[in-house]
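PROTEIN DESIGN WORKSHEET
SECTION A - STRUCTURE
LENGTH: 288
C-ALPHA CELLS:
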C-alpha cells in the first residue's frame, strides 16, 4: 500500500482537531490507521440529515456519540448486542412505524394516533412467539378489518357534508324524467341510441368520454384530448363496466355513477374527493 502524502496527513490532523470533545481520539501511526480514519469519515455522508429526519436534536449530539460508541464496541457480548438491537428497533417503531401507521389511517389529522402501549403488547407477543389474544392469521385479518373501519369512519367525518350532497344528487337523478336504471344504483340517459353489438366485460372497447363531478367541474376528458381511449370493460370502475355491458356500439349515454360504484371512500387524484358520485358522457365507438 502506498504511503499517504504529508499534505493529506496534515489535512486529516486538522479535521481531528476540529471534531471537538466527546469523540474517540485518533492516533494515525501508519497507513492502516489513516485509511481507517478516512473511511470512517466517508461513511458519515448524509448522516446529519438522517439524524435530523429521525428526530435527533443537535443539542444532544454528545448523547448520540456516547450511544454510538457504546453500540459500536459491544463486540461479541451477546447480552449487549440484544439490548442495542432492541434500542435500534424501538427507535424505528417510535420514529417511523407509528408515524407511518398514523398517517396511513388518520391522514393529516395529527391529533389521532394508535395506542402505543397496545401496539407494543402485540409486537412483543409476536416477537416472542407467545400465545396472545389472537393468532397471527387472526391478527392480520383484524388489522385489515379495523383499519378499513376506522379509515372509513375518519373519511365520513372529514367528508360527511360532501357525501350527503352526492347522495342527495343521486336521489334527484333517480326521479328525473327519461332516466333508466341499471344494477347497483347506476343510472343513464340515452342521448343517441346505437344499433351495434353490446360488449361483454372482457371485450376491449373504444370510447370517447368526459367525466364531471356533481358541481359540473370536468376532471377527465378524452374529448378534450382529441384521442379516444381503448380498454377492457372490466378494467375500469364498476359503474363504467355496468354501463358499457348494456350499451350498443354507436350509442351516446350520460351515465350517473354513485360513489359505491366509483371510488368509494378513496380519492382519485387531486380533484375527485372521497364519496364522489360521477357523471360521464360516454360514446361507445366500437369493440376491438
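SECTION B - SEQUENCE
RESIDUE ASSIGNMENT:
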Amino acid at each position: 500500500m502506498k504511503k499517504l502524502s504529508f499534505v493529506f496527513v496534515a489535512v486529516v490532523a486538522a479535521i481531528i482537531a476540529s471534531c471537538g470533545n466527546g469523540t474517540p481520539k485518533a492516533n494515525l501511526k501508519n497507513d492502516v490507521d489513516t485509511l481507517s480514519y478516512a473511511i470512517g469519515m466517508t461513511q458519515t455522508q448524509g448522516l446529519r440529515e438522517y439524524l435530523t429526519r429521525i428526530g435527533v436534536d443537535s443539542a444532544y449530539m454528545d448523547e448520540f456519540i456516547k450511544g454510538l460508541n457504546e453500540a459500536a464496541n459491544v463486540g461479541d457480548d451477546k447480552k449487549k448486542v440484544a439490548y442495542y438491537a432492541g434500542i435500534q428497533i424501538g427507535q424505528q417503531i417510535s420514529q417511523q412505524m407509528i408515524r407511518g401507521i398514523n398517517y396511513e389511517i388518520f391522514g393529516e389529522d395529527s391529533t389521532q394516533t394508535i395506542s402505543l402501549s397496545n401496539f407494543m403488547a402485540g409486537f412483543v407477543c409476536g416477537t416472542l412467539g407467545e400465545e396472545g389474544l389472537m393468532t397471527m392469521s387472526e391478527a392480520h385479518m383484524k388489522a385489515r378489518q379495523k383499519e378499513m373501519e376506522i379509515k372509513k369512519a375518519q373519511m365520513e367525518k372529514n367528508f360527511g357534508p360532501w357525501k350527503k350532497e352526492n347522495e342527495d344528487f343521486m336521489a334527484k337523478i333517480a326521479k328525473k324524467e327519461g332516466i333508466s336504471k341499471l344494477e347497483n344504483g347506476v343510472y343513464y340517459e340515452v342521448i343517441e341510441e346505437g344499433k351495434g353489438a353490446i360488449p361483454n366485460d372482457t371485450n376491449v372497447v373504444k370510447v370517447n368520454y368526459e367525466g364531471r363531478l356533481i358541481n359540473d367541474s370536468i376532471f377527465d376528458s378524452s374529448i378534450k384530448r382529441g384521442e379516444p381511449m381503448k380498454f377492457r370493460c372490466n378494467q375500469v370502475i364498476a359503474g363504467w363496466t355496468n354501463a358499457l355491458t348494456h350499451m350498443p356500439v354507436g350509442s351516446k349515454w350520460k351515465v350517473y355513477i354513485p360513489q359505491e360504484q366509483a371510488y368509494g371512500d378513496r380519492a382519485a387524484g387531486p380533484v375527485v374527493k372521497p364519496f364522489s358520485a360521477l357523471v360521464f358522457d360516454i360514446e361507445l365507438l366500437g369493440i376491438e
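SECTION C - NOTES
DSSP finds nine helices and seven strands in the chain.
The first helix runs from residue 6 to 18.
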